[in-house]
Amino acid sequence: MQQERRQPGPGQPGPGTGRAALAAAAVMLALTFWGRGLVLVLAGALAGPLPALRTALEQGQAEQPGGGDSAASGDSGPASSTAPAPALDPAAIESYLVPLLTDADKPQDAGAVAETSYGQGSGEKYIACAAGTIKNNTSVPSAEVAAEIQNPLPFHIELNSPEPQVLIMHTHATECYRPAEGLWFLPGDGARTTDRAANMCAVGAVMADTLNAAGIHTLHDQSLNDYPSYTGSYGNSRAVVQRYLAQYPSIKVVLDVHRDAIEKEDGTRMAPVVEVNGRKAAQVMLICGCDNGSTVSLPNWRQNLRFAAAWEGAMEGMYPGLTRPVLFSYRFYNQDLTTGSLLIEIGTHGNNLNEALYAGQLAANALASLFTQAG
After folding, report:
1. How many whole angstroms separate alpha carbon 356 and alpha carbon 273?
2. Residues 6+ apart with CB under 8 A from 327
3. What angle separates helix 38-47 from helix 50-61, to the nearest 10 degrees?
């Protein structure tokens, strides 16, 4: 197995002395009060801007229900939670971005990547939802889907609440992205890593920070539910979510953040991209499951669908081209646990990490807009 090249964590702080002082003060505070969470606190101080540091401090203050590296941990969960962080400039993605390999690092046998952009669909399978669309891969009549998504969100997000409202987690946390700026990937790259600074946890951290900065109290679980075994990962993540819901019944929304994988027959990896404010972002896709009356039991599918349609419309309305059509299909993905459970694919293994980080921020910013307007 080829040794993976470890990348610096997203959001490494710059040389500013004021920011360094704040980070140092936070670390000293952590040393005083939270010995068990010291590693998480230090990681937050070194790898993230202030909202990320806040998230690390909160995780250091109390044990996470997800249990860290393994979903099988016996941790009972945090004893308390803290209020959301102060507002963060939503355009400040630069603090999260990481150095990428350049063409000078490209080996002769590198794999090929091709950029593309997927548009909104048309035809009988596609239902409009504001600026976006839903691809209906079920037997539910399109007219019924169209009528359902006119209903309001099935939950109410409490802004600036001391109680968590949103949980971000990762069934396939070790999914990752190409480390190169150019359109190539390293030979033997399986697009998986346990490095949380380079896998789905990095994207989830951006999303959680963005929501917290908007006054939407969000928790981020970084359990590697697909490691060491990919088999059983959905069972692992289900147990993680259930522990959070038991500890925090205030949670209304559970987001399972993944990345997709699209390849041509010749092995070329596809990178769906869109340019937003002069910067490339990975395209994203929501997946909403549907009850099929037998093997897929999702009694809340209608409520989840309303949420998917509203978020899709917000993302595509604010950032045209950011989304692929919502996939509405007979998928389970543990979406029976809340009326706000969705899976979101942030790009593919053809995108680079910075495109995914930016897409995560945009998607979360649109979600924050949706929730604050509804609130």
Report:
1. 9
2. 135, 137, 285, 286, 287, 288
3. 180
Nearest-angstrom CA–CA distance, 48 and 10: 7
pLDDT in tens, 89-137: 655 899 999 999 999 999 999 999 999 999 999 999 999 999 999 999 9
Tokens, residue 227: 């490691």
For residue 345, what are the β-bridge partners? 258, 285
Phi, psi of 249 (to 5 degrees): -65, -10
How far from 61 is each of 44, 50, 201, 240, CA to CA, in Å?
13, 16, 19, 19
Please state, in angstroms and rounded to a whole number, the distance separating the CA atoms of residues 237 and 39: 23
Q: Which CATH class is domain 79-374?
A: alpha beta
DSSP state at residue 175: B
Tokens standing for 178?
């190409």
Nearest C-alpha neighbor of 93 from the set 322, 359, 348: 359
- Residue pair 64/78 in contact (Cβ under 8 Å)? The answer is yes
Cis peptide bond prior to 90, omega within 30° of 0: no
Distance (Å, rounded) from C-alpha 216 to C-alpha 207? 11
Closest by CA position to 62, among listed 91, 41, 45: 41
Q: CA-to-CA distance for 284 and 308, rounded, in angstroms?
A: 12
276's CB contacts (< 8 A; 6+ apart) are 319, 321, 322, 358, 362
Give the Cα separation of 73 and 66 in Å (integer). Answer: 7
d(CA 325, CA 332): 18
The whole-angstrom separation of Cα 308 and Cα 340 is: 8
Nearest CA-CA partner of 200 in 258, 241, 255: 258
Residue 293 CB: number of other CB atoms within 10 A?
9
Spatial separation of the C-alpha atoms in residues 285 and 299, rounded to whole Å: 22
Question: Beta-carbon neighbour count of residue 317 at 10 Å?
Answer: 16
Q: Is pTM, for the whole model, over 0.85?
A: no
Domain boundaries, the chain: 79-374
If we measure between CA atoms, which residue out of 129, 164, 147 comes closest to residue 338?
164
φ, ψ (nearest 5 deg) of residue 128? -70, 140
pLDDT, tens digit, 9 for 90 and up, residues 328-372 = 999 999 999 999 999 999 999 999 999 999 999 999 999 999 999
